[in-house]
Amino acid sequence: MSAFASPQPQSQFTPAPAMAGSALAPPASQAMFMSMGNFRYAPSPLQAGQSTAEPIQRVVEKRGSGRWYSSYDPYTEFATKAEATAYDKELRDAGYEKLRARTPTLYTYTHLKPHQQLTHTKQGPHTVAHKVILQSLVQADTKPQIKKLFTSQVPKPKDLESIMEEEEPDSGFNATLQPRIDRYMQDYQDVYDTAKSELAKKKPDLVVAKHSLNQLMNMHPYATSSWKSTSDASRGKLAGKGENKQDATFDMLVDKPSKPFNDKTGFQDFLDKREDMFDDLE
């Protein structure tokens, strides 16, 4: 099993983004925030056991939309930097690790050796712009909304196996790709189990739930193309998919693979579900 584990915060409370500036509840347990996978940020000094007297650098960033977000929760946005900074401090003090909105895809797995550290940079060409996933997670701020995304957008592990079987060449994946895909399949199962377990709680931690869903939606076999080869995708395929376009239509955010997937009906079903998610954006 690879180290692509899902997040587990120190506490089991649900962060309340709408109440930024108010203190979060104290941690209910002191369990270490588990690894986000090898592509994660390094642990904060507090988590690494270093003295809290050291200066702690808190980071908030601004998106093209003008909204601010915390480096510990890229799925909650604020109108002002001050609000994001206050929330960032609360999450850091509660023991959260820094997260990236960009997470590994199947392309990431097939373009890295099984022992290599996963990275957020080698994502490959998205078939639908990543902003559709990110904006949907930002908008989903209740358990029912997150569960709807989980049910509609995330294949169960057994369904993932069926998709991969459909996409597998008649001769099977070669000796280079197979171990990489094995790693991917195990990691998907692990993250799926984390998401399902978190959403089964009466009061799930929304940061954990959203990040797990982000991982799973990006790991969908149809979320990226060019993963059946270890060769890098062309620069044109890796170009942006209209993330910065104002009032972009769904079709403007789609980049179909140069070489069609084996299951054309399955891929179209994927696109239809992503378009439904896009249509639900406010």
Q: Can you walk me through this structure?
A:
With 282 residues, this protein is mainly alpha-helical. The protein has 2 domains: 55-99, no CATH class; 102-282, no CATH class. It has helices at 81-93, 106-110, 130-139, 143-153, 157-167, 177-199, 206-219, 235-238, 264-279; strands at 60-62, 68-70, 73-78. The chain is globular. The N and C termini lie far apart (39 Å). The model is unreliable at 1-56 (pLDDT under 50).
In short:
With 282 residues, the chain is mainly alpha-helical. Helices cover 38% and strands 4% of the residues.
As residue ranges, the low-confidence spans are: 1-56
The total count of helices amounts to 9
Query: Strand order of the main beta sheet, please?
Result: 1-2-3
The Cα radius of gyration reads 19 Å
Q: Which quaternary structure do these chains form?
A: single chain
Largest sheet: 3 strands, antiparallel
Distance between the termini: 39 Å
What would the average pLDDT be, to the nearest integer? 82
Q: Which term fits the overall shape? A: globular
